[in-house]
Amino acid sequence: MSKRDELIEKYAADIKEKLGQTPDLDLLTKVTIGCGPAIYGKDASTVSGTSESELETVKKNFLIKKLGLEDTPALDEGIAKVLEAYGTSNRNKYRAVVYYLLTKHFGKEAIYG
């Protein structure tokens, strides 16, 4: 099993355990691949929910550039909802899981079709 496959399994387990959801493995795999090498770096593989610059990066680079959403207050609200659902006290918010949840939140699964 490749390192990426191991990470996808870890992300799927996180979604089940922390969110009580059954993940769409096809979508999760595509989102993980879309994260590129970021999933392998200790810092880059997670999202800091308390860092304004990190949240701005998620908004600009993922929601606006990747998902093609317009910069509106709904983006910040969506990020806040996803991070709250993932657990504000959860220190390890994996980037691929956050992006997966944002993709589902905004109904943009077709981007990864």
Describe this structure in words.
The chain is mostly helical and 113 residues long. The chain has a single domain (3-112), classed as Recoverin, domain 1 (Orthogonal Bundle), CATH 1.10.238. The chain has helices at residues 3-19, 25-34, 52-66, 73-86, 95-105. Helix 1 (3-19) packs across helix 2 and helix 4 crosses helix 5. The longest helix has 17 residues, at 3-19. The model has no long low-confidence stretch (mean pLDDT 95).
In terms of topology, how is this protein built?
Elements: H1 3-19, H2 25-34, H3 52-66, H4 73-86, H5 95-105
Helix pairs in contact: 1-2, 2-5, 4-5
CATH class identity: Mainly Alpha
Pattern of helices and strands: HHHHH
What count of helical segments does DSSP give?
5
The biggest beta sheet, please?
Answer: none
**CATH superfamily (homologous) name:** Jann4075-like
